[in-house]
Amino acid sequence: MDTTKHIAVLGGDARYLEMIKHLTKSPNTDIKLVGFDQLSEGFSGVKQLNMDELELDSLDAIILPIPGTSEEGLIETVFSAEKIQLTKEWFKKLPSHCLVFSGITNDYLTNSVGEAGLKLFPLMDRNDVAIYNSIPTVEGTIMIAIQNTNFTIHSSKVIVLGLGRVGMSVASKFAGLGAEVFVGSRKKEDMARSMEMGLDSFNINELAAYTSNCDILINTIPALVVKDEEIKTMQSHTLIIDLASKPGGIDFDFAKKRGIKALHSLGLPGIVAPKTAGEILGIVIEQILIEEL
Amino acid sequence: MDTTKHIAVLGGDARYLEMIKHLTKSPNTDIKLVGFDQLSEGFSGVKQLNMDELELDSLDAIILPIPGTSEEGLIETVFSAEKIQLTKEWFKKLPSHCLVFSGITNDYLTNSVGEAGLKLFPLMDRNDVAIYNSIPTVEGTIMIAIQNTNFTIHSSKVIVLGLGRVGMSVASKFAGLGAEVFVGSRKKEDMARSMEMGLDSFNINELAAYTSNCDILINTIPALVVKDEEIKTMQSHTLIIDLASKPGGIDFDFAKKRGIKALHSLGLPGIVAPKTAGEILGIVIEQILIEEL
Amino acid sequence: MDTTKHIAVLGGDARYLEMIKHLTKSPNTDIKLVGFDQLSEGFSGVKQLNMDELELDSLDAIILPIPGTSEEGLIETVFSAEKIQLTKEWFKKLPSHCLVFSGITNDYLTNSVGEAGLKLFPLMDRNDVAIYNSIPTVEGTIMIAIQNTNFTIHSSKVIVLGLGRVGMSVASKFAGLGAEVFVGSRKKEDMARSMEMGLDSFNINELAAYTSNCDILINTIPALVVKDEEIKTMQSHTLIIDLASKPGGIDFDFAKKRGIKALHSLGLPGIVAPKTAGEILGIVIEQILIEEL
Amino acid sequence: MDTTKHIAVLGGDARYLEMIKHLTKSPNTDIKLVGFDQLSEGFSGVKQLNMDELELDSLDAIILPIPGTSEEGLIETVFSAEKIQLTKEWFKKLPSHCLVFSGITNDYLTNSVGEAGLKLFPLMDRNDVAIYNSIPTVEGTIMIAIQNTNFTIHSSKVIVLGLGRVGMSVASKFAGLGAEVFVGSRKKEDMARSMEMGLDSFNINELAAYTSNCDILINTIPALVVKDEEIKTMQSHTLIIDLASKPGGIDFDFAKKRGIKALHSLGLPGIVAPKTAGEILGIVIEQILIEEL
Ligand SMILES: NC(=O)c1ccc[n+]([C@@H]2O[C@H](COP(=O)([O-])OP(=O)(O)OC[C@H]3O[C@@H](n4cnc5c(N)ncnc54)[C@H](OP(=O)(O)O)[C@@H]3O)[C@@H](O)[C@H]2O)c1
Ligand SMILES: NC(=O)c1ccc[n+]([C@@H]2O[C@H](COP(=O)([O-])OP(=O)(O)OC[C@H]3O[C@@H](n4cnc5c(N)ncnc54)[C@H](OP(=O)(O)O)[C@@H]3O)[C@@H](O)[C@H]2O)c1
Ligand SMILES: NC(=O)c1ccc[n+]([C@@H]2O[C@H](COP(=O)([O-])OP(=O)(O)OC[C@H]3O[C@@H](n4cnc5c(N)ncnc54)[C@H](OP(=O)(O)O)[C@@H]3O)[C@@H](O)[C@H]2O)c1
Ligand SMILES: NC(=O)c1ccc[n+]([C@@H]2O[C@H](COP(=O)([O-])OP(=O)(O)OC[C@H]3O[C@@H](n4cnc5c(N)ncnc54)[C@H](OP(=O)(O)O)[C@@H]3O)[C@@H](O)[C@H]2O)c1
């Protein structure tokens, strides 16, 4: 019996190189790459193919790029000029047990995979992946904070908005660097956890009372929470770093008008630690393969 | 208009003294105590009454002891010989806006309060209270660990089972003291959070592989997770501390048979820090009074 | 050539059991015990002797009890009724390369060893031993603080006097448990280090300004620093723990008069973690044997 | 009686702006600036002068730039085109109680001040200043580590060489970010302190045994400690950051030959946090003025 797992990686960016490297170390794994023809270095034991060379009926899993597909089924191929489009029909040719991995999904991808009767794993939706990714996200935030201020994080007053998967990591690591951290959230239990962690906390409704005495504000809440009222009392040296996905949680126009530096810093794991970000994906995909196949 | 909040405290233990003290500092609050007649020290501005002196129709809130009532409606009065029984009829005499506080509840209490059309607040069920209480719980656990070992927590290998409200606090504080902490849980996201916190982690299914090399095992999971298989390979100096409510998560009989010291340490907040435990209740009740009245 | 190291352990307490155990694991080490005849358990490969059975001329090292000798040369033998007295003549019979270990020393011991032309290692004087021992000392202090207060260390205000070998460990671990730590010292660099560690700090001269708002005061300074002026403004719940060797740094009489609980807690490593305390000695003696022999 | 302190600041860089701002807040302080004529913004209540307008006999203190003077007595004036040279005669015109501040000193400055019978304070030689400055130094190091690796500091293996004023701060903050830190030093007490801090440690002699399994090496030892033997076994992704003053502690040529990235990162406080660096100087100068005048 063939216990080898046949996996095709279709496109992807720098993070995928480390993920592929991780998967190649997994026993009984056969990996084919499509959309990596411009890659200078190869991976030992890994074959590069064109889309039409791929034998779909032998595949156990396909790994799409982090953004999944466009609404037209197009996928990002950073390391190739090849244009790859995945039609609904294409998905239907995959074996019924074939797992489909992506970072995030959209209607087109969800529907295409669903109609083909396959299982989709949008990895970025998973709590474990979000928490692992919070680590490089925090380090990117630290780097940005150091680069964009003329004072130290140590001893500065830092507001962190949200104590979710990213917020908790941000708050604890900034505190670890010696900042005085104030966590703003809407849940009473978040205030209790902040207190247990040795941090100050407040109800997000009262944010405006805190911004006037703040050196760095870091937002992780994907909703407009930092508005004119909160911005207008800020001191001129205050730095805002918004980590929340587009459109973010800051009134950037108002901040600009008031001369408050506000940065919308997205995609930090891929920027500051593509190797770690890729490893995280490799580890999680490997675990899912073991459980599901 | 009378904006004073009329509150009756019916019974309670040492923790309630600090809670009462906290509430007396709240503005516009009138507090009556029933079941505290043997208390040596009084509270300034607080009246002591008998059950029959209480004017029920003016009450805005009643605070029952932590255990609530017995299935017969009896309540614990540590500071009184008076026997107090709360009948279903009694609850019906309370005004419809009157809030009922207790630590935990049972069928009798839930039904009695429900049938009277009142709102019940079993405080110990709240996430914020559970997290605040995890702090004295951790300190009790630390004290027990130091008392019951002849080695330091620092540099010892400590397994913490569960990364819930108590588990997370236990794990982070033992790590803060220099222990090498291994967190066992069933959720992948808990493994990710453990890793972010700098702790080792494993799936609770694999616990037996970890117990042979463990100095202290602390359980917070309210389910039988440490069984003969997990105990039999433990070294003779290993200390087990079970924090989970009765019946706990340890096969205590088997541990005893193997000569492994296993302590079921319950009610730690009230034991090691009754003042803090009372303050927590005072703070949370005060918040609820503001929101609900 | 005989490369075996011949070591005699003369007396000692519970800590010495772990130290002996550690040394027996060292290769090429032959250990003789004197003054352990009432010990129930033995050590495999270790011989118990009487004083007169000891072949002095083959010894490479002797290990005396932690307190060294009395001024008459008597040594403490917790595990024996044998009275052992080490005369100046006795030391002169030891080979010239023989190392002499003790915890502390006094004039008699220093002179006796010196006149015999031998090298004395009073281990407790060493910085590394003092720092290693600070770990169990801290844990003992934590235990005492938890046992003797009705509030948590977390969120309490803790003054630590001295940022030496013990003080630094105490300060960092109490902060790790969530206390708000204020370090009092006389050196500007200690204030800088406290600040870097995220702690508050003040000049010890200004101590009186800090004691009125303090929940726990921990002293490590071996000089009278907490006098009536500092004690008289303390709140009644304040707990003083003095770690400094006799006579300590607290006016205990005045504290008593004011009803302030003040504990002089000495010898904590041997009390809370004799195994760890013994291991520390074993590790350090082993290192010295390698370097010196 | 005139209790006003008359201070002249002669040259200096961006850090000095914050220092001046800090000193202007000190009561009874009159500040004159020389060498700041190209500064766009002024300081309220602070006068700008030319060298020859300065009334030397009324001065209580002069503050020279961080580098002091050249061996010819020239000083750095970043905010001026004026060439300022301080002759030995010039120093002799200062009142005998006038304090002279600089960052570091050299033979010329030490001699000139000494011959004039004045007291020189080379601030960077002070332990407290070195420790305060270690904070921005650490943050600069963190920034560089994040910028120059494609993996996270969290979970990476970091060697820190030296546990002095900078090394201790570096080690603790990298550990706080989740790195596995190994401290290399020559003192046994440093190994004990590392262990107490929860870090691994080794004798610097054995460095070569550790470099093969290291992701980031940070040196604070001002002596050649990382030589070919230590570099040749490093993995290609290893990053070396040398913080030690020129010539540093790394064989940079050999590292280059082996393709190991090695950065000599000096002057970090002034680069990443000039405001904090200036504040540190302001605080320390203010303290000295109080004590000495
Ligand atoms: N910049 C980057 O590189 C990067 C990296 C990773 C993630 N992200 C982004 O960061 C954001 C946070 O991610 P996450 O994983 O931490 O998400 P999460 O775990 O869902 O946390 C979101 C937090 O926001 C709070 N929140 C949501 N809506 C709110 C509202 N209207 N008012 C107050 N609080 C509200 C949530 O509180 P409740 O618990 O009360 O709902 C929670 O604490 C997302 O937008 C994510 O895409 C960015
Ligand atoms: N000793 C004391 O003084 C003291 C003080 C406070 C609380 N307690 C007790 O401590 C226990 C924990 O309290 P808590 O507030 O931390 O509760 P919690 O937040 O609900 O945490 C319970 C933990 O146990 C895990 N768990 C539950 N059932 C499990 C199972 N069958 N297998 C594996 N994991 C399981 C949960 O994991 P999931 O998230 O996967 O469900 C969670 O991590 C309770 O029994 C509570 O009464 C004792
Ligand atoms: N209770 C126990 O179980 C236990 C365990 C271990 C040690 N100890 C005892 O604890 C004490 C401290 O030990 P250690 O190893 O930390 O000693 P250490 O490293 O010498 O520290 C002593 C501290 O006290 C300061 N100090 C000394 N005299 C002072 C004075 N007159 N005014 C202000 N500060 C002063 C020192 O500051 P400078 O640096 O300015 O001199 C230093 O910070 C000793 O008495 C030791 O015997 C007790
Ligand atoms: N890059 C920057 O921005 C920046 C900022 C601040 C400082 N610095 C520089 O960083 C370096 C360290 O500063 P610091 O304040 O930490 O100095 P420090 O407190 O004197 O520490 C130096 C450390 O190096 C050790 N050491 C010295 N010579 C050694 C040798 N031959 N072998 C082994 N260890 C040795 C010392 O150990 P012992 O205790 O055993 O002597 C000590 O641990 C200096 O060169 C300083 O100028 C750079």
Topology:
The structure is a homotetramer of 293-residue chains.
Chain A: E1 5-10, H1 14-24, E2 29-34, E3 47-49, E4 61-63, E5 74-75, E6 84-85, H2 88-92, E7 99-102, H3 107-115, E8 119-122, H4 127-147, E9 157-161, H5 165-176, E10 180-185, H6 188-196, E11 200-203, E12 216-219, H7 228-231, E13 239-242, H8 252-257, E14 261-264, H9 268-272, H10 274-292
Parallel strand pairs in A: 1-2, 1-4, 2-3, 4-7, 7-8, 9-10, 9-12, 10-11, 12-13, 13-14
Antiparallel strand pairs in A: 5-6
Oligomer: homotetramer
What count of structural domains of chain A? Answer: 2
The rounded Rg of chain A comes to 22 Å
Most extensive chain interface and residues per partner: A-D, 26 and 26 residues
Outline the biggest β-sheet of chain A. Answer: 6 strands, parallel
CATH class of the largest domain in chain A: Alpha Beta
CATH T-level fold name of the largest domain in chain A:
Rossmann fold
The SSE order of chain A reads: EHEEEEEHEHEHEHEHEEHEHEHH
**What CATH architecture of the largest domain in chain A do you see?**
3-Layer(aba) Sandwich
Q: Give the names of the bound compounds.
A: NADP nicotinamide-adenine-dinucleotide phosphate
In terms of structural class, how would the helical and strand content of chain A be classed?
Answer: alpha/beta
> How many β-strands of chain A, per DSSP?
14
Mean pLDDT of chain A: 96
